[in-house]
Design brief:
By secondary structure, the chain is an alpha/beta fold. It contains 14 helices and 15 strands.
């Protein structure tokens, strides 16, 4: 009996290594494939799958192929928690990447951290996600950085002196606006008024009427592409003259589909530079278009980068979670990122990279502004 117990204990000790011991390595991924965020979720999944395709074609991780195990989290915190338990306890993944927004990522992060499973946030931008969590890495651009870069660009490129804030009332919308609100006055931009709206709003006419009366030079309008398209269309209909400044939530080909000509002239802060000459960016954009018959967006690029970052950690650290996270933390000028280079990881394992502004021209994003100013791109 004693020998049987010892044998069973030995088998149990080997279970966590099974994800690394076979001919494949299990990497988890959670993403909204149904619900209001499903379009972004599909982009995110495709970006992750493209990264796996590239990695496996190049020989995988130390000779082993990645098996991307993914589940739908519906962009809901409770679903992300359930998925976390599956990926950790049932699938025995050695690392997990979030292709979801801040709310589900914030809910899941403490579970992965407690379980010592390296966890990568790709589009969850909330600053609390990685704080005091050794095993959580934020490849996403932290929310306030968008606001800081947006304010500097508005001053330098648009010569703005006044601004209104139109704020989507959720984690993302308020956090990106905080950065703009704090920095705009230091660049000589006076904030005239602030207006809030709920996620999913479709009629902005009453708010835009007030904004038209304010007559600001720029309108900082936080939101996702569905709200952004309606804001741009209704602002044009109502004769609002302010240049609309958005963020990475606008960064989708669906913005053009929903907004039509009204989105021409909109500028957005993002991390994907369509005009980049970097090989990784050019390859990502070309292969994504070839494989999926649609232009790659920022969400897909960030997921692509998240998988490449966890793969780098696995190559260097094997199945040891401490070594994986340490390897990622020591990254310098990581060129395998579509949104890179990832220059380094700052405090709390937050990725630092150039931030760009893209302008919509003729139904396409084009290069407009870029910065590596540490005062702007550091959390």
């Amino acid at each position: 009996m004693r020998s049987i117990v010892i044998m069973l204990c030995a088998i149990l000790l080997l279970v966590p290594a099974l994800a690394f011991g076979a001919d494949e390595i299990k990497v988890g991924f959670h993403v909204p494939l149904t619900g209001w965020a499903a379009a972004d979720g599909q982009s995110s999944l495709q970006g992750a799958q493209l990264a796996v395709k590239f990695i496996n074609a190049a020989g995988g991780i130390n000779g082993k192929k990645i098996n991307l195990v993914y589940y739908d989290d519906r962009c809901e915190a409770k679903d992300a928690v359930v998925v976390a338990r599956k990926l950790i306890e049932s699938d025995k993944c050695v690392g997990v990447v979030s292709g979801s927004y801040s709310t589900p990522t914030r809910a899941a992060a403490p579970i992965y951290n407690q379980s010592k499973v390296p966890y990568i946030s790709t589009i969850g931008t909330h600053p609390e996600i990685p704080i005091d969590r050794k095993y959580v890495v934020q490849v996403a651009v932290m929310s306030e950085i968008h606001g800081k870069v947006g304010a500097k660009m508005a001053s330098d490129k648009l010569k703005a002196k006044t601004a209104d804030l139109l704020i989507m009332d959720n984690d993302f919308g308020t956090a990106v606006t905080d950065g703009f609100r704090k920095k705009a006055p230091t660049f000589g931009i006076k904030i005239l008024n602030e207006y809030k709206y709920p996620l999913g709003e479709k009629d902005f006419r009453s708010l835009l009427s007030n904004i038209k009366n304010d007559n600001p030079d720029v309108l900082w309008a936080s939101g996702y592409y569905e709200e952004a398209a309606q804001i741009a269309k209704q602002a044009k209909e109502m004769g609002v003259k302010a240049t609309i400044i958005g963020q990475e939530g606008y960064d989708s080909p669906y913005l053009f589909k929903l907004g039509g000509d009204a989105v021409n002239g909109v500028v957005i802060t993002t991390s994907l530079d369509r005009g980049s000459t970097r090989p990784a960016t050019k390859k990502f954009l070309a292969e994504y278009l070839k494989d999926y018959k649609v232009a790659g967006d920022q969400v897909a690029a960030q997921a692509f980068d998240g998988v490449n970052v966890i793969a780098y950690g696995l190559k260097k650290g094997g199945s040891d979670p401490d070594k994986i996270v340490d390897a990622i933390s020591q990254i310098k000028n990581f060129e395998d990122a579509a949104t890179g280079p990832i220059m380094y990881f700052a405090q709390n394992r937050v990725a630092i990279r150039p931030i760009v502004v893209q302008m919509v021209k003729n139904q396409a994003f084009t290069s407009f502004y870029s910065t590596t100013d540490k005062d702007l791109i550091l959390p």
